[in-house]
Amino acid sequence: MSGHSKWSTIKRQKGANDAKRGQAFTKMSKAITMAVRQGGGIADPESNFKLRLAIDVARSANMPKDTIDRAIQRATGKSDVVMHEAIYEGFGNGGFSVIVEAITDNKQRTTPEIKSLFDKHGGTLGVPGSVQYKNKQKGEITVKKDGKTLDDIFMLAAEGGADDVEDAEDEVVIYTSPELLSKVRQALVNQGVIINQAEIVYKPIVTKPLSAQEVEKAISFLEKIEDHDDVQKVYANFIEEQ
After folding, report:
1. How far apart are CA 216 and CA 210, in angstroms?
2. 109 with 147, same domain?
3. Which of 25, 31, 193, 238 is an S-S bond match for 188, by CB 3.0 to 4.6 Å?
4. What distance in Å separates the CA atoms of residue 7 and residue 10, rounded to the nearest whole number?
5. What angle do CA 90, 53, 84 make, to 5 degrees?
6. Residue 2 has pLDDT above 80, yes or no
7. Cβ contacts of residue 215 below 8 Å, gap of 6+?
């Protein structure tokens, strides 16, 4: 399994077992609100795919329906709070690259706080564009094997237009082009495949090998960033040396 997938797996497990459930729900609410606003105020998930993805993530974490509805209503009503998306790029100790996606109502507060987290852990916050070129945006669908083999799921995903699959223990990670994410997801659902998560991600084009000890430090660093209230997603390109 690649370091990228290992980090993705840890994030999923962390989200499912996070004691800070209130913080997780707050982040998901921000993502739902932002999806509605970026979708031109469209509050119907069938017509706003980004909203549908955000709601799917919230439901998978057992967010109550009324909490989801309130997040949608916040986006469609008048509010003095203006939310912004922010992307931070940098390097962790050891030279691996990091992309941080955040939603904030105050970049002047969030930016120095993210920079401080990099500095405290021996990393460096880079300039825009310093890391993104090493990655490609992909649709990522995580599904349960549920008695199926990797080859079984690969065939079903390929029929829907998927590019690649990756084994992840009791799950399979399927990659698509971003524009085909919805189509492939629906094709899998129609075939009875259990979807754990579907989202747009940054997938590394090049990877950075790290020792087992360095990997543990890298994961600790990334978890600190992910725990920031404004941070939505964190991506890294390290793999563990064999």
Report:
1. 10
2. no
3. 193
4. 5
5. 50
6. no
7. 3, 6, 238, 240
Q: Are residues 46 and 97 in the same domain?
A: no
Burial 31-67 (b: 16+ CB within 10 A, else e): bbbbbbbebeebbebeebbbbbbbbbbbebbebeeee
| pLDDT at residue number 8 | 59
**Who contacts 104 (Cβ-Cβ below 8 Å, separation ≥6)?**
83, 84, 86, 110, 230
| Per-residue pLDDT tens over the stretch 68-99 | 999 998 888 766 678 899 999 999 999 999 99
Could you tell me if 152 and 193 lie in one domain? yes
Which is more confidently placed, 126 or 160? 126
DSSP 117: H
Token couple for 16:
């499912």
* Residues 169 and 141 both lie in one domain: yes
